């Protein structure tokens, strides 16, 4: 099983990613939570609620950064609902948060299991950036990183060019992209292709497991938001795709590219700028700092099947 530290801002699609992982063989070592879709304490509570719903009542949840490194906090309740889970009225988990703060726990786990853990990050990258500041050797201690973030060569969703997770903390994102680890950047250029066709939405609606019902109810507000964008009642599966590629890298093909975050642009702050002109890796160091894997092609049908199976 792939052993995962899941860094999230739960959030409707973060909830989908937890359910996807639970049903597809992920072993959650810990969840760490950041500000993002909702304030961090709300996201932390939501993470516990979703873990409990899939029976993962022993996975510890560590609260993390309450705001970005160098700009004010901004949240996205207009996308995820006031409670972050579509205001569907789910009873929040009564479980306690773990004592250690997120960044410290990421460092502690990585040191205790060098080279074994996969980091899946589907919120703003503040916790991971902080962990890199605490432990500069972190990239060597982590097996692989899969980040949902960026909009390489396509329009943003938080600004003209900015994707929400990067745009919510550009400085942290730059620290993460620039670290020398094996990093897959799963951006809007590929996640927007995961909008579920009507037939998949119908199968989702018919799911009868309690957690599947719960997700369907939470998704309705999110589907409302996507309807004008996609032209039908469906939604895209941003965060589940990052989880899917952490568990089954072969669902996609990849290409290497240099990428960084625009930190000073007057209209483009928070944009991921990837050099899409092609890239000749250094054979001695294909993953030199600043080089990431972008997703080239994706088996969307296989991904949707695995998503449905998990529910
Ligand atoms: C990302 O931003 C958040 O709203 C979602 O949870 C996802 O992680 C999509 O841009
Ligand atoms: Ca998210």
Automatic annotation (TrEMBL):
It holds the Pfam family IU_nuc_hydro. Keywords: Glycosidase, Hydrolase. It comes from the Bacteria. Residues 4-304 form the Inosine/uridine-preferring nucleoside hydrolase domain. This is Nucleoside hydrolase. GO terms for molecular function: hydrolase activity.
């Amino acid at each position: 099983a792939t052993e995962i530290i899941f860094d999230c801002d739960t959030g409707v699609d973060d909830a989908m990613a937890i359910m996807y992982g639970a049903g597809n063989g992920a072993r959650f070592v810990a969840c760490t939570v950041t500000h993002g879709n909702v304030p961090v304490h709300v996201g932390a509570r939501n993470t516990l609620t979703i873990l409990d719903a899939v029976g993962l009542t022993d996975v510890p949840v560590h609260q993390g950064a309450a705001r970005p490194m160098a700009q004010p906090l901004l949240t996205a309740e207009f996308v995820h609902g006031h409670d972050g889970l579509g205001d569907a009225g789910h009873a929040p988990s009564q479980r306690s948060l773990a004592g250690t703060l997120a960044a410290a726990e990421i460092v502690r786990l990585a040191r205790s299991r060098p080279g074994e853990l996969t980091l899946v990050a589907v919120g703003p990258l503040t916790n991971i950036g902080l962990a890199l500041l605490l432990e500069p050797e972190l990239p060597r201690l982590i097996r692989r990183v899969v980040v949902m973030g960026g909009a390489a060569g396509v329009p943003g969703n938080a600004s003209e060019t900015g994707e929400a997770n990067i745009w919510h903390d550009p400085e942290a994102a730059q620290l993460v992209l620039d670290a020398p680890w094996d990093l897959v950047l799963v951006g809007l250029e590929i996640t927007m292709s995961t909008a579920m066709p009507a037939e998949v939405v119908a199968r989702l609606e018919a799911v009868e497991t309690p957690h599947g019902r719960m997700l369907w109810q939470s998704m309705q507000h999110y589907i409302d938001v996507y309807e004008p964008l996609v032209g039908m009642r469906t939604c895209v599966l941003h965060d589940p795709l990052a989880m899917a590629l952490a568990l089954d890298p072969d669902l996609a093909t990849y290409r290497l590219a240099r990428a960084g975050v625009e930190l000073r642009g007057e209209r483009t702050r928070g944009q991921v700028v990837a050099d899409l002109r092609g890239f000749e890796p250094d054979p001695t160091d294909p993953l030199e700092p600043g080089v990431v894997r972008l997703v080239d092609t994706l088996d969307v049908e296989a991904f949707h099947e695995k998503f449905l199976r998990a529910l």
